[in-house]
Design a protein that fits this description.
Elements: H1 2-13, E1 25-27, H2 38-45, E2 63-67, H3 78-86, E3 90-93, H4 103-122, E4 126-131, H5 133-144, E5 149-155, E6 162-164, H6 166-183, H7 199-205, E7 213-218, E8 238-240, H8 252-265
Parallel strand pairs: 1-6, 2-3, 2-4, 4-5, 5-7, 7-8
């Protein structure tokens, strides 16, 4: 593992992130304690003019579907949802419930249904915003339905490999065991690993179509996942912000980038 990580560190130092293998998994030596600072981001958000729709471009009422991260539900993204509505878009919760399930099943059974409803309601292409694992799911959806997706925005989403803090990896293994017990033959043996061959991961292995505007927002202070795996490798699409992994869902700098990128995609 050490030799492999050193190899990839060298690759990433040369800005060739697109060559990172999706199958890479491992433990990241990152300061998870910094995640406690996300409360400060929540406070500062409410003091920013951006939160009140000032100084950012407004939308055209097109649909924006937001997707929660690992072990999260739609509800913690309520502030993001209200803000999206405030700046002129039609927001939708993902409808996936608790994100501790096979992503392939969540996409097939819930997320596709939400996208269909948004398409029917608005009559135009959909924007997807996903936090952490939700962003990985958003990119997978963009790969599966490129003709229906206008843009995909990821917030601290490790779509290039599962390199995370050991506590996160332990939690993921617990979820994996539950999935196998709950669904049995309905899921593949490698479910909830980067080695799975389901449609969810296969769609990630394909490039996001050029018709879909992609944005990857990340923070170097991420205490959950290795931020180097949260980037596309294209500086036009990658945006670094100060903050924490959890806090990117409540970060004024992130909201400003979202508003600009949605406007550009629309």
């Amino acid at each position: 593992m050490r030799a492999r990580r050193q190899t990839h560190d060298a690759v990433m130092s040369n800005n060739e992130l697109v060559n990172i293998l999706l199958e890479e998994e491992g433990e990241a030596d990152i300061p998870i304690w910094k995640e406690a600072l996300f409360a400060a981001e929540m406070f500062l958000l409410h003091t920013s003019p951006v939160y009140y729709g000032l100084g950012v471009p407004h939308g055209d009422n097109s649909a924006v579907v937001i997707i929660p991260g690992f072990l999260g539900t739609d509800h913690y993204l309520s502030q993001l949802r209200y803000w999206i509505s405030r700046i002129g878009y039609t927001p939708y919760f993902s409808g996936i419930g608790f994100n501790a399930e096979c992503p392939n099943l969540l996409i097939q059974n819930q997320l596709h249904e939400t996208v269909e409803k948004a398409l029917k309601d608005t009559g135009r292409k959909i924007h997807l915003i996903g936090h952490s694992l939700g962003g990985v799911m958003a990119r997978s959806m963009a790969g599966q339905r490129p003709n229906d997706i206008a843009s995909v925005i990821t917030l601290a989403s490790p779509f290039r490999g599962t390199i995370a803090h050991r506590s996160v990896l332990r939690a993921a293994e617990t979820v994996r065991k539950h999935i196998l017990k709950e669904h049995g033959a309905k899921v593949l043996p490698q479910c909830y690993t980067a080695r799975c061959t389901c449609n969810f991961l296969n769609s990630l292995r394909r490039k996001v179509p050029s018709s879909v505007k992609q944005t990857a927002i990340y923070t170097l202070n991420d205490g959950i996942v290795d931020s180097r795996y949260c980037r596309t490798g294209d500086c036009k699409n990658d945006f670094e912000v100060p903050g924490t992994h959890i806090g990117l869902a409540f970060n004024a700098s992130v909201y400003k980038i979202i508003a600009n990128r949605l406007a550009e995609a629309s």
